[in-house]
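Example S7 (structure tokens).
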């Protein structure tokens, strides 16, 4: 039996999408997880896509101040919603919104509101179309922008 490593050793450097309006950061969390952060310096806003823990975000926030943070959960597994639990239990200096699959409300800590197939989330005047991609778990979502797809633990095809 061959053991396959489940670790990314070279995370990508920060890149921009949406005509340069949004910086995309990847924060290492645990040994084999990453937290994707969409950030607007001018708006002082961020979107967090999944995360097992808030510790990497805490460090990141020291250099990237935010007035508003929205978490978009691709699905409800602990390594994707652990960050929710930690942030809702704090007195945060930012407004926090947590978005996930509408049919999985009871499974997503801190759930603010739900989305489903075909809905559109907007960040910095950029649209992200919600795809329902249940190849990994019921209620799994992908967030699709013209420049990038955030697909959690599933492979999305058009």
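Recovered sequence:
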């Amino acid at each position: 039996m061959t053991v396959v490593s489940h670790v990314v050793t070279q995370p990508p450097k920060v890149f921009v999408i949406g005509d340069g309006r949004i910086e995309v950061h990847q924060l290492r969390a645990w040994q084999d997880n990453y937290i994707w952060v969409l950030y607007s310096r001018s708006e002082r806003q961020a979107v967090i896509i999944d995360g097992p823990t808030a510790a990497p975000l805490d460090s990141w926030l020291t250099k990237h101040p935010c007035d508003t943070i929205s978490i978009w959960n691709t699905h409800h597994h602990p390594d994707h919603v652990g960050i929710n639990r930690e942030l809702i239990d704090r007195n945060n200096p930012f407004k926090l919104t947590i978005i996930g699959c509408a049919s999985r409300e009871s499974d997503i800590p801190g759930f603010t509101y739900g989305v489903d197939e075909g809905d559109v989330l907007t960040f910095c005047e950029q649209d992200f179309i919600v795809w329902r991609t249940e190849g990994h778990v019921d209620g799994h979502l992908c967030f699709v922008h013209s420049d990038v797809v955030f697909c959690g633990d599933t492979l999305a095809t058009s």
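Notes on this example. The mean pLDDT is 90.
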